[in-house]
């Protein structure tokens, strides 16, 4: 029996469909945001050497045997408001993303499901004058998703 860390290094991750269902996001924006989320998963996973191979699913194609397939739906996209953060403070105007993600095997059997969140209050003072772009927020959400997937592979509980 190989140690979990050895097994993890041999896995292939296939990033499947990423949907954004929040009505406040236009279709073209959603495609760009989903791409940023995939980049975040990819970058974090490569930096942390979690997977041997990372692929983006081709619509209609079957994942290779032994692959893990990651899919998700981002249900809440709050882009935040610099003005609200400055004027009101105390968390008002916070940028926030929330999504539900699933890890499946190559046959489509669900192995794990979890919720991932990423928020940003700003970085200068209580009211936080700076802003991250929504695309950058999606990139960071992708990093959270990749880290959660890695924890699951290590046998840790995810929810």
Architecture overview:
This protein is an alpha/beta fold and 159 residues long. It contains four helices and five strands. The chain has helices at 4-10, 27-47, 82-87, 134-153, and strands at 12-20, 53-56, 68-78, 95-105, 110-120. A five-stranded mixed β-sheet has the order 2-1-3-4-5, with helices on one face. The radius of gyration is 17 Å and the shape is globular. Residues 1-6, 87-91 and 125-129 have low confidence and may be disordered.
Brief summary:
By secondary structure, the protein is of the alpha/beta class. The protein contains four helices and five strands, in the order αβαββαββα.
Strand order of the largest sheet: 2-1-3-4-5
The rough form would be described as globular
- Total number of β-strand segments? 5
Describe the sheet with the most strands. 5 strands, mixed
Tell me the radius of gyration. 17 Å
Structural class: alpha/beta
Q: Order of SSEs, N→C?
A: HEHEEHEEH
User: Helical amount among residues, as a percent range?
Assistant: 25-40%
Strand portion, in percent?
A: 25-35%
**Through-space gap between termini:** 27 Å
Number of helix segments?
A: 4
Mean pLDDT: 83
Low-confidence stretches: 1-6, 87-91, 125-129
């Amino acid at each position: 029996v190989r140690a979990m860390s050895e097994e993890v290094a041999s896995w292939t991750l296939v990033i499947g469909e990423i949907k954004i269902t929040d009505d406040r996001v236009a279709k073209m924006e959603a495609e760009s945001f989903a791409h940023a989320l995939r980049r975040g998963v990819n970058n974090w996973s490569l930096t942390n050497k979690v997977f041997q191979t990372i692929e983006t699913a081709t619509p209609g194609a079957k994942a290779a045997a032994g692959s893990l397939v990651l899919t998700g739906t981002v249900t809440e996209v709050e882009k935040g408001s610099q003005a609200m953060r400055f004027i009101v403070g105390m968390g008002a105007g916070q940028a926030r993303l929330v999504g539900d993600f699933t890890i499946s095997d190559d046959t489509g059997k669900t192995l794990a499901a979890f919720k991932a969140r990423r928020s940003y209050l700003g970085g200068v003072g209580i009211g936080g004058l700076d802003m991250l772009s929504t695309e950058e927020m999606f990139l960071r959400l992708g990093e959270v998703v990749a880290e959660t997937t890695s924890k699951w592979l290590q046998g840790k509980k995810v929810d």
